[in-house]
């Protein structure tokens, strides 16, 4: 029996890429597949589960409360997973936030009439910055939610993912907004910058390579995908003050742009293409230096294409060591706090 763990912690799972992936998986296998949806908001998780069971009444869909911005929540969720299951074949790391995005209106309208208009829409480059926060654990919020929370999760579930005689897959949802220029090894949490989202996504690209280096011999393989430009709640929240009718006006423009670029997947179903494609591949055959892109032609045909990432082994190893060191520090702090708290 295959067990699939899908992490759709942030974003409304009833309308996002995570739910679209579940729908596509269940459309080809409702008997041998077990889904476990890990979500921060259990009300929304219940809505997602109900939607899946409405279209697939015989599906096995479990729920798990988890918030990747909280160390204790991640550890508790991992312990619950180990109680419920004896193995995991797929771990989809799909959580992502872009808090308080600042939109440069002048740069946007200038970009509309420039040769970089498609790149601007596809990546947000030049028009988006974010104001990061700090979690109760004292870590940068975007870094913790988008990267380090996932790293802690897979470290906690290592024994379930690394089993002799079989393979397991990690699949990271990255972004075309993952830019080397936004990332620094001297500031992996991006405390000093204004592009924490881009930094966290570039770090996930690096980390995936390092994980392949360290875990492939144990049967664990890591891959990275880009869903393309998809209209989800995260996209709408980039321009929270925009009235609904402006989004409606932009829609025909987006469809027109898709005639000239295949990265405008637009719908969650199309954006989940690479996630679904990876589910059907042998992990040993995948390129650890490639990001697998969900693409949609102007005629609406979906396909997946690997594109080389702007990463190198040396930087990925350095990031991996820094994350291990941070893991040791947060575990020690958590242990000390537990000793100090009364029974």
Automatic annotation (TrEMBL):
Show the stretches that span the lipid bilayer: 238-257
EC number, UniProt record: 1.1.1.210, 1.1.1.270, 1.1.1.62
| A Gene Ontology cellular-component term | endoplasmic reticulum membrane
> What Gene3D superfamilies has UniProt attached to this entry?
NAD(P)-binding Rossmann-like Domain
Q: What class of enzyme is it?
A: oxidoreductase
State where the protein is found. Endoplasmic reticulum membrane
Recorded GO molecular functions are:
3-beta-hydroxysteroid 3-dehydrogenase (NADP+) activity; 5-alpha-androstane-3-beta,17-beta-diol dehydrogenase (NADP+) activity; estradiol 17-beta-dehydrogenase [NAD(P)+] activity
* Gene Ontology terms: biological process: cholesterol biosynthetic process; estrogen biosynthetic process
Catalytic activity reported:
5alpha-androstane-3beta,17beta-diol + NADP(+) = 17beta-hydroxy-5alpha-androstan-3-one + NADPH + H(+); 17beta-estradiol + NADP(+) = estrone + NADPH + H(+); a 3beta-hydroxysteroid + NADP(+) = a 3-oxosteroid + NADPH + H(+); 4alpha-methyl-5alpha-cholest-7-en-3beta-ol + NADP(+) = 4alpha-methyl-5alpha-cholest-7-en-3-one + NADPH + H(+)
* Membrane protein topology class: Single-pass membrane protein
Main localization of the protein?
A: endoplasmic reticulum
Question: So, what pathway does this thing act in?
Answer: Steroid biosynthesis; zymosterol biosynthesis; zymosterol from lanosterol: step 5/6; Steroid biosynthesis; estrogen biosynthesis
What are the protein's UniProt keywords? Answer: Endoplasmic reticulum, Glycoprotein, Lipid biosynthesis, Lipid metabolism, Membrane, NAD, NADP, Oxidoreductase, Steroid biosynthesis, Transmembrane, Transmembrane helix
**Family, per entry:** Belongs to the short-chain dehydrogenases/reductases (SDR) family. ERG27 subfamily.
Subunit structure of this chain's protein = Binds to the short form of prolactin receptor.
Q: Which PANTHER family match?
A: 3-KETO-STEROID REDUCTASE (PTHR44442), 3-KETO-STEROID REDUCTASE_17-BETA-HYDROXYSTEROID DEHYDROGENASE 7 (PTHR44442:SF1)
- Protein name according to UniProt: 3-keto-steroid reductase/17-beta-hydroxysteroid dehydrogenase 7
Q: Which organism is it from?
A: Oreochromis niloticus
